[in-house]
Structure formats: structure tokens, C-alpha cells
């Protein structure tokens, strides 16, 4: 029972990470020590699983895919997404500076812990990491593309997001943000729009089954290089969650005025700068994000198998 609670709690934390633009559920799984077990379970489609299926050995099939583990972990992830989608939406609207500060701290600490997972530090991994930083930074400053919201686009969004979500270092929510689909998906989850959530979930399932085997091969064959690149992307993506931004242009959408083309600024360069509200409190939230990740890594969860 204690192990089940730990797996469920791991799912909760992974779900929170998946909702945050810039933080990867895969990174959280690495920190929690459940990543290898997760990828092994997801990539279990092979000759053995097909043989077990056609022989009617359901018990063997259950153990082959580690279904009990996936169900408990998945329940934690879904529970977390349903609960925190509403909280994230509220804070993005009411306290964006504080929330982005917290996100920045989460990503920064996650990048440090992910670097510790790299077994070989050499010129190749350093070069790949720096390339990743460049890719992450360039992607972060891209203005979100506004696609027409169709069922096909929702399905594709689910496929792309889930592939990123299980990659340590790349956030599915971040890619949704770049695609201009983040707020729509989060709002749909918050409003419990079953049709949208179902299409997105089916896309995610297809992406998960098709990508997990490649990911297992990549991390088993080129682990250090892959993690170096992914960590670099995460570090570069910090520009996306830099709390202090000023909009360069605005567009009117009905009764809403939406900022676009935001530029990064130092806190004291903001209009109507307030020392406490615009600098001290965001930095405290940033520190809270860093401490949260290191506390999670410190407790017994990394020993979970």
C-alpha cells in the first residue's frame, strides 16, 4: 500500500509538471526515480506481448506492461491535471508575475538535477548542451502561432504534447504554448469539455505508443548526449518563463485586450515599478520553485522502484 501511495503521489507531481509551460513530466519522473520503469512499461509492445495476447495469458500481459503501475501513476497524473488546470488558469490571470517566477525556479532546479543524470561530461556533451540552449532560447522567443482550432488540430496537439511530456527536458505545455493551443486546452479541461478532452487524449495515446520505443532506444544508446541536448533545451526555455515581460503590441479579441510580441526586461525597467511587488515577491516565488524541486529530490521518492 505504501508503494501504491508513492506511485500515485509521483503521478500527481508529474501531472503538475505537465500543466506548467516549461516543466516536463518526464523530468519530474527522472527526479522521482520512476522514469525507467515508465518507459519500459510504455514500450512493451513487442513479440512477447503479441504472443501473450493471442495465447489469452491476460495475467502475463498485465505483468508484461506493468499495468498496475501505469494505472496508479496515470490516475495521479489525471487527478493532478484536472485539479491544477483551474488553479493555473486563475493564477495566470490574477498573479502572472508570481506564477512565472515560480515556474522559473522549478525549471532552473530541474535543469540542475537533470545535468547530474549525465554520466559522461566531455566536449561532445558540452557542445550538444550548448546547441540545446540555443534551440530552447530561439523556440522560446517565437510568437505563438494561432492555428484554427479543429478536431484534427486538437488530435495533433495531443500527439505532440505527450511526446514532449515524456521527454525529460522538453515540456508538452511549452509546445502547446508555441502552437497557440495551451490556453484552449487548459480552458477545455477546466470546463470539462468532454469532446475536446477525449480527442486530445486519443491523440496523446497514439503519440505515446508510437514514440516510447524510440525514446527507450535513444536513452539506452545515447543517454549522455540525449540528456545533454534535452537539458540545454530546458535551460534555453527559461527565457519563455522569465517573469518580467512587457508587451510590444496588443490585439483586441472581443472584450479582451491580449498582449503579443512581449520583450524581456529587468524588473526595475517595468512601467510603474514596485520594489516589493515586482522584485522581492517574484524572487521569493522563484526560490520557492527551486526549493520545491530539491525537496522532492531529497525525500525517499527517488528510491522508488
Q: What is this entry, summarized?
A:
The protein is mainly alpha-helical. It has helices at about 1-20, 25-30, 35-40, 45-55, 60-65, 65-95, 95-115, 125-140, 150-165, 170-180, 180-190, 195-220, 225-235, 275-300; strands at about 245-255, 255-265. It is globular, with a radius of gyration of 20 Å.
Question: Which features does this protein show?
Answer:
about 300 residues; mainly alpha; two-stranded antiparallel sheet; 14 helices; about 5% strand; disordered C terminus
Could you characterize what this model shows?
With 305 residues, this protein is mainly alpha-helical. It contains 14 helices and 2 strands; from the N terminus they run H-H-H-H-H-H-H-H-H-H-H-H-H-E-E-H. The protein has helices at 2-19, 25-32, 35-42, 47-54, 58-64, 67-94, 96-115, 123-140, 151-165, 172-179, 182-190, 194-221, 223-236, 275-298; strands spanning 245-253, 256-264. A two-stranded antiparallel ribbon has the order 1-2. Helix 4 packs antiparallel against helix 5 (58-64), helix 7 (96-115) runs parallel beside helix 14 and helix 12 (194-221) crosses helix 13. The longest helix has 28 residues, at 67-94. It is globular, with a radius of gyration of 20 Å. The two termini are 14 Å apart. Mean pLDDT is 78; it is low at 251-258 and 301-305.
User: What order do the SSEs take from the amino end to the carboxyl end, as H and E?
Assistant: HHHHHHHHHHHHHEEH
Main pleated sheet: 2 strands, antiparallel
| Helix content class | 55-70%
Overall mean pLDDT score? 78
Terminal CA distance reads 14 Å
Number of strands: 2
Rg from C-alpha positions? 20 Å
**Which strand-content bin applies to the residues?**
5-15%
Low-confidence stretches: 251-258, 301-305
Strand order of the largest sheet: 1-2
From the helix content, strand content and strand pairing, which structural class follows? Answer: mainly alpha
Query: With helices defined by DSSP (H or I, 4 residues minimum), what is the helix count?
Result: 14
Shape: globular
Amino acid at each position: 500500500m505504501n508503494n501504491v501511495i508513492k506511485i500515485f503521489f509521483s503521478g500527481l507531481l508529474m501531472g503538475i509538471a505537465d500543466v506548467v509551460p516549461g516543466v516536463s513530466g518526464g523530468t519530474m519522473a527522472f527526479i522521482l526515480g520512476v522514469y525507467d520503469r515508465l518507459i519500459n512499461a510504455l514500450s512493451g509492445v513487442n513479440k512477447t506481448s503479441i504472443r501473450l495476447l493471442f495465447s489469452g495469458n491476460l495475467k502475463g500481459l498485465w505483468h508484461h506492461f506493468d499495468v498496475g503501475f501505469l494505472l496508479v501513476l496515470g490516475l495521479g497524473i489525471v487527478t493532478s491535471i484536472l485539479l491544477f488546470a483551474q488553479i493555473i488558469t486563475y493564477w495566470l490571470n490574477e498573479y502572472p508575475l508570481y506564477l512565472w517566477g515560480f515556474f522559473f525556479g522549478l525549471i532552473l532546479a530541474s535543469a540542475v538535477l537533470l545535468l547530474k543524470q549525465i554520466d559522461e561530461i566531455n566536449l561532445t556533451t558540452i557542445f550538444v548542451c550548448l546547441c540545446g540552449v540555443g534551440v530552447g532560447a530561439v523556440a522560446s522567443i517565437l510568437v505563438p502561432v494561432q492555428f484554427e482550432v479543429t478536431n484534427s488540430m486538437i488530435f495533433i496537439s495531443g500527439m505532440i504534447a505527450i511526446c514532449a511530456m515524456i521527454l525529460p527536458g522538453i515540456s508538452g505545455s511549452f509546445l502547446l504554448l508555441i502552437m497557440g493551443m495551451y490556453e484552449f486546452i487548459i480552458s477545455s479541461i477546466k470546463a470539462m469539455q468532454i469532446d475536446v478532452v477525449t480527442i486530445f487524449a486519443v491523440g496523446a495515446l497514439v503519440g505515446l505508443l508510437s514514440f516510447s520505443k524510440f525514446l527507450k532506444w535513444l536513452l539506452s544508446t545515447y543517454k549522455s548526449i540525449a540528456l545533454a541536448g534535452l537539458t540545454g533545451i530546458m535551460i534555453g526555455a527559461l527565457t519563455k518563463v522569465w517573469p518580467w515581460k512587457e508587451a510590444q503590441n496588443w490585439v483586441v479579441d472581443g472584450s479582451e485586450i491580449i498582449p503579443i510580441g512581449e520583450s524581456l526586461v529587468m524588473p526595475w525597467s517595468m512601467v510603474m515599478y514596485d520594489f516589493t511587488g515586482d522584485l522581492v515577491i517574484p524572487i521569493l516565488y522563484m526560490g520557492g520553485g527551486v526549493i520545491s524541486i530539491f525537496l522532492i529530490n531529497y525525500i525517499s521518492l527517488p528510491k522508488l522502484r
